[in-house]
Amino acid sequence: MSSAVGLKGWRVTDASNHKYTFGTFTLGKGKTVTIRTGRGTNTSATLYQGRGAYVWNHDRDTATLRTSSGRWVDNCSYNWTRVDSTMC
Fold first, then answer.
1. Sheet containing 60-66, strands listed edge to edge, beginning at the edge strand earlier in sequence
2. pLDDT tens, 2-34?
3. What is the reported pTM?
């Protein structure tokens, strides 16, 4: 990405349509963010969904990123039977 992006209202969903909606958050140029399922304190590099149960499937799943208006931005799939790990 060539500049920072405000992600407020953007959503990440999985194949079962579990949703994480970003609050006020700006992703800096060249930075990444990790979204964790459980509880914790949000930082500039890690955000927490606050869920008590896992969302991502162990064997395969797809993460889809959409803007606040619902426009598709990107997706990433993994299949543990074929690769060691995937970072989306």
1. 19-21, 11-13, 60-66, 72-79
2. 799 999 999 999 989 999 999 999 999 999 999
3. 0.82
The single residue listed with the structure tokens 């955000």 is: 47
Give every CB contact of residue 47 below 8 A, 6+ residues apart in sequence. 20, 22, 25, 33, 34, 35, 36
C-beta separation of 8 from 23 below 8 A: yes
The pair of structure tokens assigned to 47 is 């955000």
CA distance 46 to 27: 11
Best CA proximity match to 68, nearest among 29, 28, 12: 12
The beta-carbon contacts of 51-57 under 8 Å, at least 24 apart in sequence, are 55/14, 55/16, 55/18, 56/14, 57/14, 57/15, 57/16
Neighbours of 71 (CB within 10 A): 9
